[in-house]
Amino acid sequence: MIKVAMIEDDVDVSRFHRLFLNKIDGFELIFDTHTLEDGLKKLKQHQPDLLLLDVYIGTTNGLDLLKKIRAEGIDLDVILITSANDAKTVQTGHRFGVVDYLIKPFSFKRFQKALNRYRLNKLDKSEVFSQQEVDRLFHKGGQNKVYTLPKGITKETAFRIMQCLIEIDDWLTATELAEKCSISHVSLRKYLRFFEEEKLIETQLIYQVLGRPLQKYKATIDAPLFLEAGFI
User: Fold this and answer.
1) 198: helix, coil or strand?
2) pLDDT tens for residues 94-107?
3) Other C-beta atoms within 10 Å of 73: how many?
4) 20-51 residue pLDDT tens
5) CA of 47: how far to CAs of 4, 122, 174, 176, 217, in Å?
6) Which of 103, 44, 54, 102 is CA-nearest to residue 76?
7) Domain boundaries 155-231, corresponding CATH code
C-alpha cells in the first residue's frame, strides 16, 4: 500500500481529492492538513511515500515547502496539484523533482493516471540497477505514459491494430484497416474511438463525387510510443 499525504488549504477541494483517492486501489491517505507548518511536522512524523501538494496555501507557497523537503533530504515523492500554470511555477516544480503536475480543475481520469503512473514507476529501494536498466528508467519515452483501457478494449488487440497503422503509415478507411488487422468492423470502431481520444491517430474526411464521404485514419508521429507505454 502506498502511503499518501495531502496539503490543501481549501476544505472542499480537499474532500474531492480524498474521494478521488479512495476510488484508486493501492493508495492510503494517512493524513491531510491545511497549512505548510503542520504539513512539515506530519511529513516527518508519518513518513509518507507520496505528497499531494497545493501551491497557493493561504499567504504561503507550497513551493517553499517543496524546496525545504529537498534541502532536508526528506525521502518522499511529490505531485503538485494547483491552479498555478505559469512557466516559473511549472519550471520550479520540475527542477525540484515533482513526479507529476495537475492543473486545477482536472478530471478523475487525469488524477487516476497520475497516481497509476506513479505506482508503475515507483522504485523498490532495495533494488540494484545495471546501466541498461538505468538508461531505460531515464530515457523511457512512451513508458512515461500510462493508458487506462476502457471496458471492451484489450491491450493485445490495441497493439495489433496500432502495429498495422504504424507499418502501413498511410491513410486507411475502417474497412481497409479491419481487413488488414483481421478484426470485425464493429470491434475496430471501439479501438479507433479510443485512439482518437488519446490523439494516437489522425482522421480526414474524403469527399467523393457519388456516395457518402469516406473517413480515413493514419497513425500520428507519437503512435509508436503507445507500444512502449504502461497499461492499467
Assistant:
1) coil
2) 999 999 999 998 88
3) 6
4) 999 998 899 999 999 999 999 999 999 999 99
5) 9, 16, 52, 55, 49
6) 44
7) 1.10.10.10
For the entire predicted model, the pTM comes to 0.61
Reading the block at residue 226, the C-alpha cell is 503507445
Query: In terms of Cα–Cα distance, which of 163, 152, 217 is closest to 190?
Result: 152
Nearest 5 degrees, angle CA 134-CA 136-CA 141? 140
Confirm if 76 and 47 have CB atoms less than 8 A apart.
Answer: yes
Q: From 3.40.50.2300, 3.30.1340.10, 1.20.58.220, 3.40.50.1240, which CATH number describes the 2-126 domain?
A: 3.40.50.2300
The sign one gets for the Cα dihedral 112, 118, 120, 126 is negative
d(CA 80, CA 66): 9
What does the DSSP assignment read for 176-189?
HHHHHHT--HHHHH
For the chain, what's the residue count? 232
Is 218 within 8 Å of 169 (Cβ atoms)?
yes
Structure-block grid coordinates of residue 182: 483481421
Q: Mark 16-30 as b/e (b = at least 16 C-beta within 10 Å).
A: ebeebbeebeebeee
